[in-house]
Fold this protein.
Amino acid sequence: MNAPAFLQLSRWEMRRILSERTGVMLIVLWCGLLALAAQQGQRHVTGQYAEISAARKADEAAWAGKRARLVAIEGGSAHPEAFGDPRSPTNSVMGRSGERPIVLVPTPLATLSGGAGDLAPAVLLAGMITKLIGPAQSIENPANRLAGPLDLTFVVSALLPLFVLALSFDVLARERDAKIWPLLASQPTSLPHIVAARLAVHFAALWLPLVVAVSVSALQSHSSADPLLPTVGEIALWLVIAAGYLLFWQLLAAALNFRAGASASNAVSLAGAWLAAVLLIPSGVDAAVQALAPPPDRREFLLEVRGIETDLFKRADALREAYDAAHPGQRPQGPLNEFDTYFVENLYPRALATDAALAPALTRLVEERAAQARWWRRLAWLSPTLAFRLATEQLAGVTPVQRQVLQTRAKEFQNEMRAVFGAHVASMRPLTLADYDRTPEPSTVRLAFRDRFALAFPSLLGLAASLVAVMATAIALARGNRVPAPLNFRS
Amino acid sequence: MLWTIARHELRQLRRDGRLRAAAWLAFCLLTALALLGWQTFRREAHERGHFEATAREQWENQGEKHPHRAAHFGFYLTKPELPLTFFDSGIKPATGRVLWLEAHQRSVFAYSPTEDAGATGILGLTNGAEVLQLLGALLVILAAYGSVAREREDGTLRLLLAQGVPPRRWFAGKCMGLGLALAIVGTPVAVGLWLLCWRADPNAFGIDAVARGLALTVIHGIFFFAWLIGAVAVSAWARTARGALALLLGVWVGGGVLAPRLASTLASTLAPLPTVAAFAKARTDDFTSGFESEPGWSARLAQLEKETLAQYNVNKLADLPVGFSGIRMQAMDAFDRRISDRHQQRLQAIYDRQISWHAVTAALGPYVPMRAVSASLAGMDWPHYQHFAEAAEQYRRGVVHSLDQLLERELRGDKWEIQFGSDVWARVPPFTYSTPTWTWALRVTAGPLLLVVGWLALAATIAWFGARRISP
């Protein structure tokens, strides 16, 4: 078929859709949903950037304030307060006031996939004795979290197939229902070409608004500090994946239409496929993953942590002696007050020992989560919806396993802080301006595109395999004997 | 005549192979998830018991330490679950499993299962109630969408009306037949669920659990009846069976798939919560600088020192015959409690507004309010969790206060360090909690309950007028 004929067919299909109230309503509804989801994604990421910015500003102000007070005290223009002396290691670097924000910057695709992002913080505070094993604090109403975010990934993965169903369920069967197949078959254009032209219009009607929504949402949330080109590249990749997913459902609709069923049967079959791909298979995969790789037992973990903490608390003196033996020359030179004594004799050496004792339990926890993620990746190909969701969430860097990197970086930062201030805390040697200037800068974590893509690759492969399979089926049905004789031009 | 029409409808349904297959699929899925839920419930009940007993043992054997450090060591509590949880786990997947009670902090639930979900969070169906409500409604739609419209398309409606069958009676007969079919499928499901509920925890299967179960059964009956007569009414209004199916599926997708996410989106957009950092900062600001013209902590402490010195007629804190650090901690906690309550009220007001926005999405279908009612009757909705958290908070305050009093009694002057042992920790009473009654559950979920009944009323109204205008 030549291009003008294809365009002519497409124009006719477009006119048909626009002439029907249902068709127009569907497109308006689709655009409305996309706009809402895009706005939600943008709001989510803007909120994350605001949180990051607030944490950084508060941190800078706190450290600058402490430094300024120290300058004033050393200059004699101010007197130290009981619990606010910037020279005291317990006041300045040990407690909450010494914690600094480690930041996980949202990826360019974070606007499109909320994922578990609302469960994992964008900012983690880390200090000398911060317990980094705890969960993220949340005051969110869980009833809100339960349903999950209305993001573009949800709209595309769960709702897009329904729009395909509504537009394409009778892409060929409508002529069969109207008993004008012989007329259509007598035309010089082949049926597959007619179907292709019609589906191309449906594709454009669904995909072009998606391109606009995705681009606007992702580009508006784009940080001006980051280069634009990689962001555009990632958006393009996301759109290509979405196009593949859309094509999968369109080809399924085409295959059903080529099968020579009535439009009502096609609609029921497509609805059944949607139900299976969106609800039933993910439920089955979820149950299978829980059975094959049970989630970490958090309660047992907590009991283990408390057991270790209690044991180490009882052995605090021995821990202090071991610390002194490993770090000679760090004993305090003068008398200490009650608080400082507790920090020196008990809290700091115990914090170090606790971290070392908890390391195996934490490693086990991370491994159990990783095992779960592996099983999800292995089973995602069972449903194209699951494969699409998993791939896009991994590309957006919002899965729990990916966000683990924030905790890892926080731990590294804690070690850097201990390397700089450990001796001060152990000996209660007052902090100087030089010490303040040596404070490690809190780091910013970015998930590299290469790593995200590598993680998403198996799911993308699964999606591609589904697409190829359904394409092969559609082509076979279009060419094969199952097309009724009057329409089978080869027979 | 009514019975004849109903019997005819039943026969037609029985002959529909696709419907039979769909019913079996839904039944198998429901059974699988209910059994999985039942097994999980029993395992978790055992684990919860072990966790709480071990946590208590660890509290009592934490060794010699300062009472305030013991208060920071804290307690771990878990929310008890009713046997109905196996059927409807409510917000459990998204809510933390434990509460850590420690000094100074109002506790929040931590470690939700979704945090460890490993992949896409919540996708698909996670419990028996979701399957029953979502797929059950779909089954009702598939059974009822063609009940009138197909007869119209086939031309049999004209024949029926020509024979003098009153349209409303015929309509009622159709509903009765479909209702009977629903009852035939639903009764074994309900009996099975009741048995599982009883076997899940026979000791907890008391009057309250039975009342909750009965209320749950009745509300599910109302929910499915609303879908049923709504579907038949749409079938009566629609010109074609295809049109009826499209409309009903649209309502099902809108109400069952889209509405829950729309509800949370509306709620978090129009009634946004502060970030954890902003919330913590607001509390710290109140503590430091005071609120409502009251002074902040530094000024209060100075005043407290002055008053205590005057009360004991001494010049220095070191000369006090009681432990000032205990007095200071009590004053600090009392001030902190007021700040905490003040901010908690603010949060509660936002939660209430969010729940109102959830109710708005009930306009798309009865699924969202039905989920709220079902989770509430199973004791697994947000108000139940908050009720537990509030009881735990009162317990925390009592324990911390008693430990602060110990400091005041046992210390002298402005000393801080002192150690106590297991005998003191063992004297702290264990936490006891009673789950609210079923009437409380119904009261807190009255809004969604009315919305489900409202959907039934709306469906009945459409059916009433739809039955009147039945024409070939």
Summary: Residues 2-278+366-390+420-469 of chain B form one domain. Strands of chain B lie at 75-77, 98-101, 109-110. Chain B touches chain A through 84 residues (CB under 8 Å). Chain B has one domain: 2-278+366-390+420-469.
